[in-house]
Amino acid sequence: MHSSSPDLRSTSSDLRSTSLDLVADAPVETEPQPALTPLIMIETTDESGVCNTDGWCV
Amino acid sequence: MSASVFGPAADPIVVDVWSDVVCPFCYLGNAVFKEAVEQFPHGSAVQVRYHSFQLNPGFPAGQAIPADEYVAGQYNMPKSQLEASHAQLTTRGAQAGLDYRFSETLMVNTLDAHRMIHLAKAHDRELSMVERLFKAEFTDGLNLADHAVLADLAAELGLDHAEALDALKTKAYEKDIRADLAQARQLGITGVPFFVFDNKRAVSGAQGVETFRRALDVTWQDRASQPA
């Protein structure tokens, strides 16, 4: 669920292709969203503390 | 934190948060962010809106397996590495007042849990539900794929048990969840927790209190610099 080892991330790429979830993969039928301006990221010294869409946490 | 901090204000700083209930860093990030809001002199003017995100949307609905077993299998991770990783997060969690019990944590498809968050939002109990689900996942070892468990949690927060069961049975709030996921894609969010301040600035990850404070401070300064 979480690890500081980046070398194992490459083994998780198959997770995306196995996505069977209807909500995540179904065509999006939502109200039109207003155009978004690019977000300004707050600078950080630590890029860990995130769980990514492949299920991997670093 | 007082309820007013996350409640409505006349012209609040709006913080949109994308997270998933099986994301350990989301639990930590939520706690640390709350601490930052408490320290922020204008904390009463901060309004938080939670948005659905799914880390493992392909996980079979209705099933639950020990999270350790899932992670070890998916990533071929040695047990020692997993335990070291757990220990690190457990320590950080304890500093934030959280009690991680990874040996009891279950991996599930979180879609139904997100339905409960949207149900709670409709009853102005969004924050309570998000926090209760995190605790249920990471401390209590509850199965968040079990409709009875989810309905019980809803009832625990004062929501109607039958209404919660009905929402789960009828797959309610599908449109709201899709909207959250679509907005995340539109913003380019690939990991959680992810915090957006006044639709302008963002923080990725369970950062420290000082980072969230800086985000709040600069967002407040943005407002001060805007023409009246």
Please summarize the sheet with the most strands of chain A: none
Mean pLDDT of chain A: 60
The main sheet of chain B comes to: 4 strands, mixed
Number of helices of chain A: 2
Q: In angstroms, what is the radius of gyration of chain A? A: 16 Å
Annotation, overall tally of beta strands of chain B? 7
N- and C-termini, Cα separation of chain A = 9 Å
| Count of DSSP H/I helices of chain B | 9
The CATH homology group name of chain B: Glutaredoxin
So what's the overall shape of chain A?
flat
CATH topology (fold) name of chain B: Glutaredoxin
Question: Largest interface, by Cβ-Cβ below 8 angstroms: which chains and how many residues each?
Answer: A-B, 40 and 64 residues
Strand content of chain A: 5-15%
Short description:
Chain A has 58 residues and is largely without helices or strands.
Can you walk me through this structure?
The complex is a heterodimer of chains A (58) and B (228). Chain A is low in regular secondary structure and 58 residues long. Helix content of chain A is 14%, strand content 7%. Chain A has two helices and two strands. Chain A is flat. Chain A starts with 13 loop residues before the first helix and ends in a 6-residue tail after the last strand. Chain B contains nine helices and seven strands, in the order E-H-E-E-H-H-E-H-H-H-H-H-E-E-E-H. In chain B, strands 2-1-6-7 form a four-stranded mixed sheet, sandwiched between helices. By secondary structure, chain B is α+β, with helices and mostly antiparallel strands. The N terminus of chain B is likely disordered. In chain B, strand 6 and strand 7 form a beta hairpin. Chain B has a single domain, classed as Glutaredoxin (3-Layer(aba) Sandwich). Chain B is globular, with a radius of gyration of 18 Å. In chain B, 51% of the residues lie in helices and 12% in strands. Classes of the chains: A little secondary structure (58), B alpha+beta (228). The interface between A and B is large, with 40 and 64 residues. Strand 1 of chain A pairs parallel with strand 7 of chain B.
